[in-house]
Write a structure and sequence with these properties.
- By secondary structure, this protein is an alpha/beta fold.
- The protein has two domains: 49 residues, no CATH class; 246 residues, Vaccinia Virus protein VP39 (Rossmann fold, 3-Layer(aba) Sandwich).
- The protein has ten helices and eleven strands.
- A seven-stranded mixed β-sheet has the order 7-6-5-8-9-11-10, with helices on both faces.
- Strand 5, helix 3 and strand 6 form a beta-alpha-beta unit.
- Helix 4 packs across helix 5, helix 4 packs across helix 7 and helix 6 runs antiparallel to helix 7.
- It is globular.
- The relative contact order is 0.14.
């Protein structure tokens, strides 16, 4: 069984021995130090580092903002991860909040969004080159540069340059939205940010560890391999919400196709957990599986009325204990 790989990017870790002062009641009394049992250089190092924190670890986390990100419901998701699985698949990777929290072994990440996939690959394979490009964008950032970057991302040929343009636009565009027109051109306007965080070196370097050894592909969910014993987390564009991520949309036909894909996973002996809107269509498509309603916070959305708390569904085909009873469990 492949478990979660709980690695973090550690900045430093210092341990020091306590120095015992004797006969210090009088300010004129000499200080006598109890033996430390270490060398002189080790003692000097302990004294120099005495005021530093014992540890400071930076966990992996999403390096882009993403509509429908899952950080607000991470506890709900983690509580429902199956106890055993032999491979992790996430066909709608988006910001990757669950992946970065879980850090599973034998992970397969994919999405139809080529720019997003190139960003993940750049973080995994050339994070320093990516950071270098982002620093250039940060230094040149203004409205004129932003508008030029929107056009460049469709014409650039270097994968790392494209990845850096994608992250730059994500950090500076309106509400972190990714939207393209029918021609595949990025068309989100500039956001109203006084000082956008374009280069997050600490997070990018921390994410290298999580992505090391991970397979990353551009592909539709229907092209993802189905394996017995594997775990699939599916976070598609939600039914009856914004779905213009790649210019082709994700309509009712795609939701029906996704439900059939989940049935294939179930039949093959795999495990899936799916997030989606609480609508009649979704409830009907997944009748017979465990369906639970949870409340999620939406801080990134293309529409103001879609931000805030809203009910959504978590759907599973396995019966591991969950923190609450399902609101529906029909057909079992």
């Amino acid at each position: 069984m492949f478990g979660a790989r709980k690695e973090t990017y550690t900045l430093h870790f210092h341990l020091y021995d306590k120095i015992v002062h004797l006969n210090s009641m009088s300010p004129r009394s000499p200080r006598i130090l109890a033996p430390l049992g270490v060398s002189f250089n080790q003692a000097l190092g302990a004294i120099a580092n005495e005021q530093k924190p014992l540890s400071l670890s930076i966990p992996s986390k999403p390096f882009v903002k993403w509509v429908g990100g899952k950080r607000s419901i991470m506890d709900e998701l983690m509580a429902r991860i199956p106890k055993e699985y032999y491979g992790y698949y996430e066909p709608f990777i988006g910001g990757g909040a669950l992946f970065f929290s879980l850090q599973p072994e034998n992970a397969h990440l994919s999405d139809v969004n080529l720019h997003l996939i190139l960003a993940y690959r750049a973080v995994r394979d050339d994070v320093e080159g990516l950071i270098g490009h982002l620093k250039v964008h940060e230094a040149k950032h203004n409205k004129t540069y932003f508008l030029k970057a929107r056009k460049r991302i469709s014409t650039a040929s270097d994968p790392v340059e494209i990845a850096s343009l994608f992250i730059y636009l994500n950090k500076t565009c309106f509400n972190g939205l990714y939207r393209v027109n029918k021609s595949g051109e990025f068309n989100v306007p500039l956001g109203d940010y006084k000082d956008p965080s374009i280069v997050d070196e600490v997070t990018l370097r921390a994410d290298v560890t999580a992505l090391n050894g991970t397979e990353i592909h551009q592909r539709a969910f229907s092209q993802v391999k189905i394996e017995k014993g594997a775990f699939y987390y599916l976070d598609p564009p939600y039914h009856e919400t914004y779905d213009g991520y790649n210019g082709s949309g994700f309509g009712v036909d795609k939701h029906i196709e996704l439900a059939e894909f989940c049935k294939k996973i179930d039949k093959a002996g795999g495990k899936f957990m799916l997030s989606n809107s609480d609508t009649d269509l979704v409830q009907t498509l997944y009748k017979g599986y465990t369906i639970e309603q949870i409340n999620a916070s939406r801080s990134v959305s293309c529409k103001a009325n879609q931000r805030g708390k809203e009910a959504e569904l978590l759907i599973r085909n396995y019966a591991d204990p969950s923190p609450r009873s399902p609101i529906r469990n029909e057909g079992e």
